[in-house]
Design brief:
With about 400 residues, this protein is mainly beta. Helix content is about 15%, strand content about 45%.
């Protein structure tokens, strides 16, 4: 009984209320507007129904997506929801009361006209209920986030207000934690959806200061399709390597026509004249006993790729790839044959036959007087870079683990 009361109180206290100007419409019709990939639909009795555009949805219906699959649901044409990949929802409707139960995954919502006074739209997860009146954001199992508006959120004895650009997260202890939105906290499926609507993109930019259009993968469709023709896309991420507000697309992928290759990585940038290929790197398969890592690292506010390799013979190797453009976008007048992107450093540390430690340092960019000892220069270079995240690794030179996914 005590547990039931606690859960009921938590559900009620997490209702997010937001009122907008202009009139409302009744949530009397629901349709599966369109799908992408593999989407399943079942009715209130669990019977499978073929998913198709403009399929009518009714109380008790369930919609589920698989990997790299999405579903868009219209509610009276003025309330849009988008179901992320690997997600499942169930619809419950009674009169003018509509509930969307997010059983797994995440759901984006954009209510362009507010509800009438006598109707409700609740998005429910295992930990919260979000009462929607007319706003835009997304919901995950333990997260409610807003791109527009201001809402009050309460949990137990706590009560907070979150604004556009903030998210409320239910912790393991059942407490509410309010955090600011960053571009990395906004899921890719939300970024892409907002970026396709210029008016909504501008509204989100005005309310949060985040330009989601710059972080959408939509402009890279042709480049990604070309990579898919040769192999598999393992991971994608929009990364502002140069910290100049003009981000790039990082792609980890495979090439089936290259036998000795474990992993390839490509970097693209979308600009006014189209998408340009900035950089390509590869991790070839190595002899058994060689471990390898590919990481995103930071130095002086900018991001780079670090490839690390260690042999059983106690030979370690690091390379650092990234942009050499100045912060204003101007190319330097020296080194790298005028390229924007290149391998900046490649350094190694090894043990010789007499068990003495040796160092090798190479670069075609930075001039070094050679006055410092190799070990001092080695440590200086290594200390310039700090790890942001491990992207992928191979424990043995033959198998691959994509950590970032």
């Amino acid at each position: 009984m005590k547990t039931t009361k606690r859960l009921t109180a938590l559900a009620l206290s997490l209702a997010l209320l937001l009122t907008s100007c202009s009139g409302g419409a009744s949530a009397t019709s629901m349709h599966l507007r369109k799908t992408e990939g593999t989407v399943g639909v079942s009715d209130g009795e669990g019977k499978d129904i073929t998913a198709k555009d403009d399929l009518g949805l009714y109380s008790g219906y369930q919609v589920g997506t698989q990997e790299k699959s999405y579903a868009w649901i219209d509610l009276d044409r003025v309330k849009l929801t988008k179901l992320d990949q690997d997600s499942e929802i169930e619809i419950a409707k009674e009169g003018k009361k509509l509930e969307i139960n997010v059983k797994s995954g995440s759901l984006f919502f954009n209510v362009t006209e507010p509800l009438a006074d006598d109707e409700t739209l609740d998005i429910v997860t295992s930990t919260m209920i979000i009462g929607i009146r007319g706003t835009c954001g997304w919901v995950g199992e333990n997260t409610a986030a807003l791109l527009e508006g201001t809402v009050s959120v309460a949990a137990g004895e706590q009560e907070v207000t979150i604004n556009a650009g903030e998210m409320a997260v239910v912790t393991e202890e059942g407490a509410l934690d309010v955090k600011p939105l960053t571009i990395t906290s906004i899921p890719a499926f939300v970024r892409d959806e907002v970026a396709e609507d210029e008016e909504l993109t501008k509204a989100v930019l005005d309310t949060t200061g985040i330009n989601l259009a710059a972080y959408s993968t939509a402009p890279y469709k042709d480049a990604l399709d070309r990579l898919k023709e040769r192999g598999e896309i393992l991971y994608t991420e929009i990364v502002d390597f140069e910290a100049d507000g003009n981000p790039e697309l990082l792609v980890l992928h495979t090439r089936e026509d290259v036998d000795d290759e474990l992993l390839a990585y490509s970097i693209f940038r979308a600009g006014p004249e189209g998408v340009s290929d900035l950089y390509f790197g590869r991790m070839p398969r190595r002899e058994v006993g060689t471990s390898m890592e590919l990481s995103l690292v930071e130095s002086d506010g900018r991001l780079y790729l670090e490839e690390y390799r260690k042999h059983t013979s106690n030979h370690e190797f690091w390379s650092y790839d990234g942009s050499i453009a100045e912060k204003d976008g101007v190319k330097p007048s020296w080194g790298a044959n005028g390229k924007d992107w290149t391998m900046i450093y490649w350094i190694s540390r090894f043990e010789d036959s007499n068990h003495r430690t040796g160092y090798k340092i190479s670069t075609d960019l930075y001039r070094d007087s050679g006055s410092r000892k190799p070990e001092e220069r080695f440590e200086e270079i290594r200390s310039q870079f700090s790890t942001v995240k491990l992207l992928a690794h191979s424990p043995d030179g033959k198998s691959l683990v994509v950590d970032a996914s």
